[in-house]
Amino acid sequence: MRLSSTLLGVAAVLGAAEAQLRGFNYGANFLNNQAKVQNDFEYEFNKAKSLPGTSGWTSARLYTTIQHGTTKDPISAIPAAINTKTKLLLGLWASGTTAAAGQANINNEIAALKSAISKYGTKFTDLVVGISVGSEDLYRITPTGISNKAGAGAEPADLIKYIKQLRAAIKGTKLAGVPVGHVDTWTAYVNGTNAGVISNLDFLGVDAYPYFQTSMANSIGHANETFYSAYNQVKNVKAAKGKAIWITETGWPVSGPKENQAVASAANARIYWQDVACSLLAGKVNLFWYDLQEAQYGTPSPDFGIFGAGDLGTLKPRYSLSC
Ligand SMILES: *[C@@H]1O[C@H](CO)[C@@H](O)[C@H](O)[C@H]1NC(C)=O
Ligand SMILES: *[C@@H]1O[C@H](CO)[C@@H](O)[C@H](O)[C@H]1NC(C)=O
Fold first, then answer.
1. Burial of 289 from C-beta contacts in 10 A (0-12 / 13-18 / 19+)
2. 177 and 140 in contact (C-beta within 8 Å)?
3. Is residue 321 assigned to a domain?
4. What digits encode the pLDDT tens for the residues 247-261?
5. How far apart are the C-alpha atoms of 144 and 178, rounded to whole Å?
6. What is the SS3 assignment for 178?
7. pLDDT per position as a tens digit, 199-226
8. What pLDDT sits at residue 151?
9. Residue 319 falls within a domain, yes or no?
10. For the whole model, what pTM was predicted?
11. Are 218 and 257 in contact (CB under 8 A)?
């Protein structure tokens, strides 16, 4: 990509002004579908802040702004973030089995967001570093997406509509200046059909998992190269025009099935951390790792958690987090 020197200058100034974000992805519910309450989120946010061998993991990415099991109550991660001084990349769930269902979700997400603004005021809004409209919605409407991940997605035109609705909803509020983005797989961004979505974003939230790239040589030895190839392909998409790229999900599983040549193990998760996490941190790229703990009880497969199942307070990381 070619940028004029003026643009590069502006980018450098903006980059320097913003500290790098380091965070994890936090679901609204446990593996058994039980809703997380404020205490649960505080427990997780505090654990992330005190990891051995690394520091600065004080940001949280949420998939939804709605408290699990309610129609449109604000998620209890918000008061937990206030109590633990955790920065928030908010998410609005944008997918539905029909476009009407997707729109109904977005209406509820925006209602929850507005309630949170009036309930918590600047204690909340000062912590918000970004808002993502949607999560992997474009991936889910592709042929591979449907076979890999059951569930509905959202068409590019609908996402654009939702992004505009969110921008209109935060206009004139304390969240007005917050960057608005979208999270999707890197493959969705390099797909030209989705260029219109990119044009409406302030930042591109990119999910990339070399472990799942089974049509390629995907052993751990190829993982760093595969990750950066994906990252650079998104960077070079014409519509991206040098917009900020945040890595919103990446990681390597500690246990789970072999995917083509990719072996899930703590040793390989450590290599992936050392190569990919450490280089992103050194490069000051905003990073939301997948994941701190995938499940408190039960064994997900694959399991990407730095911590396995059990009480986070007593668990030790399954691999070294030093760089
Ligand atoms: C490209 O994106 C469009 C719209 O989001 C989708 O329908 C299509 O399946 C995608 N193509 C591939 C190869 O994933
Ligand atoms: C990972 O890839 C990046 C980008 O190509 C490169 O700069 C870095 O040296 C690679 N790291 C390793 C450990 O191979």
1. buried
2. no
3. no
4. 999 999 999 999 999
5. 33
6. coil
7. 999 999 999 999 999 999 999 999 999 9
8. 63
9. no
10. 0.93
11. no
Residue closest to 265 by CA, chosen among 226, 221, 304, 214:
304
Indicate if the pLDDT at residue 12 is higher than 50: no
In this structure, are residues 276 and 250 in contact, taking their beta carbons and an 8 Å threshold?
Answer: yes
pLDDT at 18: 53
What would the two tokens of residue 182 be? 């979208």
Cα(225) to ligand 2 centroid in Å equals 7
Question: Using the 8-state DSSP alphabet, how is residue 271 labeled?
Answer: H
The model's confidence at residue 143, banded by pLDDT at 50, 70 and 90, is: confident
CB 206 within 8 A of CB 246: yes
pLDDT at 20 over 80: yes
Q: Residue 89, class by beta-carbon neighbours within 10 Å (0-12 exposed, 13-18 middle, 19+ buried)? A: buried
Q: Judge whether 323 lies within some domain.
A: no
State which residues form the domain around 227. Answer: 2-314
> What whole-number distance in Å separates Cα of residue 254 and Cα of residue 249?
16
Residue minimizing CA distance to atom 8 of ligand 1: 142
Query: CATH number of the domain that 190 lies in?
Result: 3.20.20.80
Where are any strands of DSSP class E within the chain? 22-26, 59-62, 87-92, 128-135, 180-185, 203-207, 244-249, 287-289
**Proximal ligand: closest to the CA of 139:** 1
Count the domains in the chain: 1
From 42, 44, 109, 136, the catalytic residue: 136
Amino acid at 237: V
Answer whether 183's CB lies under 8 Å from 134's CB: yes
Q: Is 136 a catalytic site residue?
A: yes
Look at residue 89 and tell me whether its pLDDT is greater than 60: yes
Per-residue pLDDT at 6 exceeds 90: no
Peptide bond into 275 cis (omega under 30): no
DSSP state of 129: E
Which one of 42, 249, 259, 294 is the catalytic residue?
249
Instruction: Confirm whether 74 is domain-assigned.
Output: yes
* pLDDT level of residue 242 (50, 70, 90 thresholds): very high
Read off the amino acid at residue 46: N
